[in-house]
Specification:
With 279 residues, this protein is α/β, with parallel strands linked by helices. Helices cover 39% and strands 20% of the residues. The structure holds adenosine monophosphate.
């Protein structure tokens, strides 16, 4: 049975009476199999699993989909229940930010200047701020994040290091549909034609991966491979090869590099990435 808490105080009272290790899976809800894979891993590694469900207004910019973002608490609660989640934390924005928040956590400029940070100004400040707050509220031993949001993951790792959170960050592989499309709550916005266009994100990244495995390490060539296969109906926002940890652009694949893409299919903005590892 998953216990639901809407307030910080009641959650803290409850957690104060639990023993053993605690795993946190931060989400914005509209749970799908990708989220559930994080939960499954957290279950394996912790005595108590906390899932937070919070559509964080601070990480949405003007004109973004904060109001339209899918919300379905009852179906999320059932999914958590079936996955064996112990605790759901589902606060309101008022509960998290009060009347007039706030101290904000601003991630390093070098990590937010590129990729999603270029068009989503302030997004990662919103992410870092809410994640730091969730870490302080839940006090987990481990926290689980998806590789699908590769820039977010790198920024959270940096935050944990810089602010000395005693939390192990676990990165979890991207779960995909059989077509290869990365599962995302925003896939709900796509109709069937758009879904087939969106599949070209991963197909083109896989082609670049094949080229890399055949010996190609030049970013320009790998990017060319993706561009030449990507559906022309995708409005490309960025396509970059970066160091997966520092997020600095690289000209050649290094030890752990991330080939990351963002683009629009219709009005829906989608992201994906693959890790290319020289080892
Ligand atoms: P969100 O609800 O979109 O904020 O995502 C919550 C967490 O789930 C983040 O750490 C995401 O990276 C992760 N996540 C989202 N989609 C997937 C996926 N397809 N596979 C694995 N993890 C995912």
């Amino acid at each position: 049975m998953s216990v639901v808490f809407l307030t910080i105080d009641t959650l803290r009272d409850f957690l104060g009476n639990t023993n053993g290790s605690r795993g946190l899976v931060p989400t914005m809800g509209a749970l799908h199999a990708g989220h559930l894979s994080l939960i499954e891993r957290a279950k394996l590694e912790n005595d108590c699993v906390v899932v937070s469900i919070f559509v964080n207004p601070l990480q949405f910019g003007q004109g973004e989909d904060y109001l339209q973002y899918p919300r379905d608490m009852e179906s999320d609660r059932l999914a958590c229940e079936q996955a064996g989640v112990d605790v759901i934390f589902a606060p309101t924005p008022e509960e998290i930010y009060g009347a007039g928040q706030l101290t904000k956590i601003i991630p390093p400029e070098a990590m937010t200047a590129g990729l999603c940070g270029r068009s989503r100004v302030g997004h990662f400040t919103g992410v870092a701020t809410v994640v730091a707050k969730l870490f302080n509220i839940v006090k987990p031993h481990r926290a689980y994040f998806g590789q699908k949001d590769g820039q977010q993951l790198a920024i959270i790792r940096q935050l944990v290091k810089d602010l000395n959170f005693a939390i192990e960050i676990r990165d979890c592989p991207t779960l995909r549909m059989t077509s290869g499309l990365a599962l995302s709550s925003r896939n709900q916005y796509l109709d069937s034609e758009q879904l087939s266009i969106a599949v070209s994100f991963y197909e083109s990244l896989k082609l670049a991966e094949s080229a890399f495995l055949a010996g190609e390490i030049d970013s320009k060539v790998l990017i060319y491979v993706v561009k030449s296969y990507l559906s022309p109906q995708v409005v490309l926002e960025y396509l970059e090869l970066v160091n997966a940890e520092t997020l600095e652009p690289v000209e050649k694949v290094q030890t752990k590099s991330m080939l990351a893409i963002a683009g629009r299919v219709g009005n829906t903005r989608l992201i994906d990435n693959i890790i290319l590892n020289i080892d």
